[in-house]
From TrEMBL:
Transmembrane feature ranges: 21-41, 47-69, 90-116, 122-147, 159-185, 205-226
Protein name per its UniProtKB record: ABC transporter permease
Record keywords: Membrane, Transmembrane, Transmembrane helix
Protein's UniProt keywords contain Transmembrane helix: yes
Amino acid sequence: MISFRKVFAIMDAKTKTLMSKNFFLMMLFSIGYGILMNSVIGEVTTYALALAVVCNVGMALYITTLILAEEKEKNTLRVLMTSSVTGIEYFLGTVIPILIELEIVNLILVIVLGVQMSLTAWIIYILMTTLATLSCAMIGMIFGIYAKNQMNANSVVTPAVLILMLIPMFADLMPIMAILSNYLFTGVVIESINSLTYNSIIVTPMQWTVLLIECVLSIIAFLFLYKKNGFEA
């Protein structure tokens, strides 16, 4: 049985952590990156939005890895374990505030970059970016389980973020990258946002399947590894 009192307590702690200087700057970086790309391209373009959104999604991986690594350093996870916090409670309490804050950034990016969308396109955009952000957050939490400390977490997570971002970016230049990009949630995000028009954003059934499967698998993997590594009493 999920204890929502514990979930809300974890959410409150994570929200305070996210408001710290370092994590707040991480989220602002995506907005700055989007503005920079838009100015380089020189016109309102969905490509600048796609790159900025993928950058923001990648921040979920950084944030969750560093938060989990920090809690391991401070033995906070062991305290939670003695409080009988389950994997699902920790998952909900950690991911919900991160999802909310990063989705707010994704919404701000659309407005700041001057991209216009209909209500239908907005709904699809929010659903798609939420699934991608959740997948990235869960991968980050898995890295965090195995990271020895924050410094180690940083060195481990950076290559993963680069892989998730660079494969879709080079998809048009290398056939093998294009194939791999089709099966990555970051690739789905870039391709779908590039197809954006005012009235619609094209996400094929195959792309929805990729987003859903990778999201579900990452959640299951985290819950399994959280318990396997002794963080659940």
